[in-house]
Structure formats: structure tokens, C-alpha cells
């Protein structure tokens, strides 16, 4: 193991305590070069290590210069460079563990500072992170001094601990004495807060890790969403503070667009319930451009003809959540009939444009067409208009179904169950792995459960179902630990499916009004 020894009472005590129990630590000291006499601390720790017959590692880093270059504050830079050094030392000595001597006092000061800064996530100093272990987080300072005195061991006092310009010194010298005069156990209480908050944070972080990619962020509790954003930013190696986390989480929940500039100048965008850490790539056409089509970006009055009629391009871009700032970057192919192709992920094709460009039909678009045909049949039979098909592993339709609940007087007669049964009959097996379930409305828990039982590989739906959807509508069934999790694609021809439902329910309401009169 490597132990970080500053020369202060805590880490000197930890080094001696380790030797008492027969451990064989390497003592490591980083000279931060923040004081003219900092080399004296390094020499003092080196002499101590020699006296105790402990291997010693040290290096000198100009922390102030690094902080100025990188735009970090000095305390932050010192911490980062110290852990870099301790990690390098551990690697050099093949040590599995790095120990530091943070105590209850450090923990209390950290929690108080985080509270004053309004940190959204309050967990204090973690007892364990990576290979770092902090065994003394709940040890009172008085015990440490008593232990050192009993051994006749002295220690160095760091004069920056008296420099009230540093927040930590100010908290220690000016704030904690006032608090403990009234609340003698304030330090212990703050350390307890850190411990329980760390437990809460661990639970919420593991919930956040289970959020599936398709889940609408609006329905996620803010405490979980905040941890999810933190993990995403952390994975991308981005620095951030509490207000950034709040702004991004708030925009995700409200379904609003927000642009946030993080420390280091990196821009992050939230739009349409998605977090974009990198500039959105807008695809260029990857097929020969037909004659008479021109590649350009948008102009006023651009329109595109889609199955539901012609629409303003700006409305299509809004529906697809393209941030305003990006709209001039989206590549278009335009003919004298209007916009034919919009370079989004996946691209938007105008009606007839695929054929004109000799491109194969979109298989999911075509399959949803079959499911919509089933939904229309249900509507004609005065059923709730939902239809479904199952595609076999080769992409061919192997099962079809529509809602027949009214006909059978049975609320389990949903389209998906009918299509899954039909597919099992066609393929001669109840296991539909490699198959795709395509349904016009986001499935309910019963139908998604059936798809999971059948091991369907891909679930595709049209309209969202805020009343009963199990893919984020009212609940996200896939957030639980299932042995098998299908991929999910939503909003395929969603407008058509939603319009059909709206029309049918509108007609039903009209009938009811008429009957009432
Ligand atoms: N210059 C350093 N080199 C190596 N490790 C250090 C150094 N400074 C601090 N550490 C490690 O980080 C822990 C916490 O740092 P902190 O700044 O709170 O300590 P300190 O008050 O300067 O000294 P101590 O904790 O030893 O009394 C220390 O207990 C020690 O294990």
C-alpha cells in the first residue's frame, strides 16, 4: 500500500499506526511548491520515513502554475495533482491500495462547504474511490493527537491552515468553533450527514445506471436524473459545478431546450429530453443524388410532403428536436417539388423520394404501414384502433394482430398478444428471439411482458401512450433487471398512429353526446 503523508498529525499518525499493525507501506509526499519553504516538509517526511525504515517517494509540482494554465482554483489543482502523483506512485510500487488520513474533522468541513455552495449532491469525502481508501473518516482529531503524544512523535503544522483566504482554513478557524460552542457534537453530526447522504447517493446512482436509453427523462425523479446527468458528464470527462447539474436536469425534466457552457468552455445542449455532449452530427446523403435535386441548407418557406400532407420544414425540425442553433447545419436535398430528404438521424424522406433516388424502402416504415392497416381494421370494427405485426429474423411479416377486446368482451385481447401468438404459430416456436414486434401504440405492461417472455429482440412503436405505456409512458418496465432486454425504437410514424386514435376517440365522443341528447 501507498500512504499519502503530508507531515501533518493525521497522516503521520496513520503511517505509524500502519507500522504498529505490521503493514509495510510506502510513504509518498507531494511538494506542491505553494510556499517558499515547502521543500522543508518534504525533507521532514523523508527523514521520518528513513527513521521508520519505510520506502519513500516524492516529487515537486508547481501547483500554482498548473492551476493558472488550466483555469482551476488552487485547492482543486492541488488535490488533482496529489491524486495523480499518489496513483503513479502506487503503480510504480505495484500497490493495490492508496491510503489517506482524512478524519472526521475533514469530513465535517467538507460537508459544511458543500452545503454553503449549494451542492445538489451531498456525499462528503468518500471512504473508497478507485484504489483510494480513507479508513479514518469517523475518527476525532483528539484521538490522533493523543496517539502521537503517547509515542513521542511530533508533526508539522501547515501554515496555510491558518491562512483565512482558504475556505477550509476559514471554516476550521472561524466557523467550526462558533458552531461547536452551541452544538458540541457538530463535527460528529456533519460526518453522520455525509455517511447517510453517501448511502442515499449510492442507491440513487444505481437507479440512474438502470435508466434505459429510451426512457423519457420527464418521468424520472429529479434525484435520479441528476445522478444520471452526473454520470454522463463524468463518462465524457467533463468538469461541472452544482448549477450546471441543476440547469441540465431541470431542462431534461421540463422537456425544454437549454445550452450550458461548462468549465473549460465545453458546450452541452439539452433538447427534446436528450442530453447532447458533442455537436450533433448531421448525415450527408450516402447515395447518388438524383438529377434536378440540389444539396443546400434551409431557406424560408421550405416545405416537405409527408404521408399526412405537406408540412413546413421548420415544424419537422421542431418535431425532431433539432436545436435552433443547429438548423442551418442540417443538409437538405431539394427539388422543384420541395424538400426531398432531410439529413437527420434517421433521415426524413418526402413521399416518393426514396423511389426517385432508387433507395430501398425503410423496413420499419413499411412494417408500421402493415401495423397501421391492422389498426384501421380495428377501427372499422369499432375497436380501439391498435394494430401490430411481428417481423421474423429475415424481416418478413410472420404475425399480425389487432385489438379485439370489444368483440370478445375480454380486455386482454390486445393487438400485440394476437400478433405474438400468430408469429409463434407461423415459426413453430414460442421463442421469438431475433424477431421484431411492431405496434402502432406504445405497449402496455401486459403486452411488453409478453414480448419479454417471448424474447422478442426489438420492439418498435408508433404513438406514445401516456395513459398505459410501459416504455416510459406511465412506467419503464425495462428499468428492472431482466435477463433479456430488447432494443426499442419509438415514434415510427407516430403522428399517423396518434391521429388514428384521436379520430376514433373523437367519433366515439360525438356518438356519446348524440346518445345523451
Ligand atoms: N503533500 C501531500 N503529499 C501526500 N499526501 C498528502 C499531502 N497532503 C495531504 N495528503 C494526504 O491527504 C490527506 C488529507 O489531506 P489534508 O490536506 O486534509 O491533510 P493535512 O491537513 O495537510 O495533513 P494531515 O491530514 O496529514 O494532518 C492527508 O491526511 C494525507 O494522507
From TrEMBL:
KW Zinc (keyword) present: yes
Name of the protein this chain belongs to: Multifunctional fusion protein
Coarse class of the protein's main subcellular location: cytoplasm
Organism this protein belongs to: Deinococcus caeni
Purpose of the protein: Catalyzes the deamination of adenosine to inosine at the wobble position 34 of tRNA(Arg2). Ligates lysine onto the cytidine present at position 34 of the AUA codon-specific tRNA(Ile) that contains the anticodon CAU, in an ATP-dependent manner. Cytidine is converted to lysidine, thus changing the amino acid specificity of the tRNA from methionine to isoleucine.
Gene that produces this protein: tilS
EC number(s) from the headed UniProt entry: 6.3.4.19, 3.5.4.33
Subunit structure: Homodimer.
Reactions mediated catalytically: cytidine(34) in tRNA(Ile2) + L-lysine + ATP = lysidine(34) in tRNA(Ile2) + AMP + diphosphate + H(+); adenosine(34) in tRNA + H2O + H(+) = inosine(34) in tRNA + NH4(+)
Amino acid at each position: 500500500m501507498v500512504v499519502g503523508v503530508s507531515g501533518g498529525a493525521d497522516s503521520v499518525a496513520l503511517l505509524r499506526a500502519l507500522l504498529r499493525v505490521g503493514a509495510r507501506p510506502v510513504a509518498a509526499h507531494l511538494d506542491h511548491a505553494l510556499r517558499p519553504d515547502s521543500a522543508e516538509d518534504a525533507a521532514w517526511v523523508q527523514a521520518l520515513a528513513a527513521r521508520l525504515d519505510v520506502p519513500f517517494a516524492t516529487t515537486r509540482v508547481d501547483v500554482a502554475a498548473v492551476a493558472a494554465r488550466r483555469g482551476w482554483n488552487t485547492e482543486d489543482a492541488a488535490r488533482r495533482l496529489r491524486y495523480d502523483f499518489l496513483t503513479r506512485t502506487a503503480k510504480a510500487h505495484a500497490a493495490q491500495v492508496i491510503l489517506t488520513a482524512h478524519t472526521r474533522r475533514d469530513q465535517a468541513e467538507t460537508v459544511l462547504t458543500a452545503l454553503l455552495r449549494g451542492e445538489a449532491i451531498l456525499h462528503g469525502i468518500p471512504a473508497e474511490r478507485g484504489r483510494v481508501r480513507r479508513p479514518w473518516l469517523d475518527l476525532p482529531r483528539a484521538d490522533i493527537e493523543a496517539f502521537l503524544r503517547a509515542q513521542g512523535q511530533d508533526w508539522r503544522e501547515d501554515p496555510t491552515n491558518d491562512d483565512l483566504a482558504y475556505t477550509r482554513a476559514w471554516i476550521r478557524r472561524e466557523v467550526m468553533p462558533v458552531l461547536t460552542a452551541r452544538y458540541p457534537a457538530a463535527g460528529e453530526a456533519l460526518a453522520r450527514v455525509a455517511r447517510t447522504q453517501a448511502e442515499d447517493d449510492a442507491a440513487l446512482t444505481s437507479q440512474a445506471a438502470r435508466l434505459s436509453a429510451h426512457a423519457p427523462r420527464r418521468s424520472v425523479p429529479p434525484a435520479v436524473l441528476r445522478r444520471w446527468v452526473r454520470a454522463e458528464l463524468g463518462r465524457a470527462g467533463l468538469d461541472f459545478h452544482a448549477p450546471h447539474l441543476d440547469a441540465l436536469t431541470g431542462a431534461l425534466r421540463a422537456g425544454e431546450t437549454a445550452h450550458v457552457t461548462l468549465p473549460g468552455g465545453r458546450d452541452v445542449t439539452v433538447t427534446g429530453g436528450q442530453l447532447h455532449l458533442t455537436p450533433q452530427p448531421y448525415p450527408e446523403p450516402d447515395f447518388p443524388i438524383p438529377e434536378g435535386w440540389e444539396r443546400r441548407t434551409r431557406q424560408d418557406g421550405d416545405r416537405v410532403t409527408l404521408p399526412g400532407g405537406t408540412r413546413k420544414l421548420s415544424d419537422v425540425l421542431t418535431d425532431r428536436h433539432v436545436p435552433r442553433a443547429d438548423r442551418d447545419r442540417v443538409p437538405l436535398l431539394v427539388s422543384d417539388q420541395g424538400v426531398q430528404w432531410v439529413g437527420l438521424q434517421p433521415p426524413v424522406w418526402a413521399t416518393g423520394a426514396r423511389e426517385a433516388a432508387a433507395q430501398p424502402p425503410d423496413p420499419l416504415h413499411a412494417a408500421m404501414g402493415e401495423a397501421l392497416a391492422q389498426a384501421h381494421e380495428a377501427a372499422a370494427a369499432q375497436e380501439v384502433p391498435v394494430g401490430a405485426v411481428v417481423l421474423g429474423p429475415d424481416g418478413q411479416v410472420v404475425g399480425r394482430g389487432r385489438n379485439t377486446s370489444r368483440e370478445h368482451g375480454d380486455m386482454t385481447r390486445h393487438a400485440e398478444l394476437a400478433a405474438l401468438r400468430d408469429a409463434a404459430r407461423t415459426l413453430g416456436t414460442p421463442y421469438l428471439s431475433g424477431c421484431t414486434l411492431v405496434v402502432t401504440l406504445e405497449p402496455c405492461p401486459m403486452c411488453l411482458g409478453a414480448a419479454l417472455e417471448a424474447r422478442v429482440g426489438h420492439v418498435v412503436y408508433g404513438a406514445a401512450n401516456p395513459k398505459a405505456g410501459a416504455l416510459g409512458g406511465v412506467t419503464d418496465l425495462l428499468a428492472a433487471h431482466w435477463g433479456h432486454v430488447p432494443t426499442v425504437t419509438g415514434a415510427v410514424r407516430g403522428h399517423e398512429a396518434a391521429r388514428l386514435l384521436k379520430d376514433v376517440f373523437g367519433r366515439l365522443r360525438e356518438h356519446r353526446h348524440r346518445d345523451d341528447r
